[in-house]
């Protein structure tokens, strides 16, 4: 049998799917931890939870940035500028834990 080769578009789609899946898992776990564990008196702060939230935010960014980029690219220079500003604000917010 011949080996099937993946195209760049297929590889990108698989990467986006993985990012979305990781985001969903981390969001579900962190939502559970953030909302339910404090009710029973368990502390949910610390570097581990901060790192998990950062990974979730970056995976979310990677999951949506490709679709947003293709939209912005098709709609002109103003949309591309808005896209990059939004990405910069999101990354800064994720890193500094503003949002």
Q: Can you tell me about this structure?
A:
The protein has 99 residues and is an all-alpha fold. It is built from three helices and no strands. It has helices at 8-36, 47-74, 77-96.
Features of this protein?
single chain; 99 residues; mainly alpha; 3 helices; flat
Largest sheet: none
Mean pLDDT: 81
Number of helices: 3
Give the class from helix and strand content and strand pairing.
mainly alpha
Which percent bin holds the helix content?
over 70%
Secondary-structure map with pairings?
Elements: H1 8-36, H2 47-74, H3 77-96
Helix pairs in contact: 1-2, 2-3
Please outline what is shown here.
The chain has 99 residues and is an all-alpha fold. It has helices spanning 8-36, 47-74, 77-96. The protein contains three helices and no strands.
């Amino acid at each position: 049998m011949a080996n099937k080769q993946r195209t760049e578009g297929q590889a990108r789609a698989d990467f986006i799917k993985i990012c979305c899946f990781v985001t969903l898992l981390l969001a579900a776990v962190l939502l559970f931890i953030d909302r339910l564990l404090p009710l029973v008196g368990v502390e949910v702060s610390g570097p581990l939870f901060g790192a998990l939230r950062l990974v979730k935010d970056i995976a979310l960014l990677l999951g949506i940035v490709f679709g947003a980029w293709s939209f912005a690219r098709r709609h002109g220079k103003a949309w591309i500028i808005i896209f990059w500003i939004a990405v910069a604000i999101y990354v800064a917010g994720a890193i500094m834990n503003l949002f």
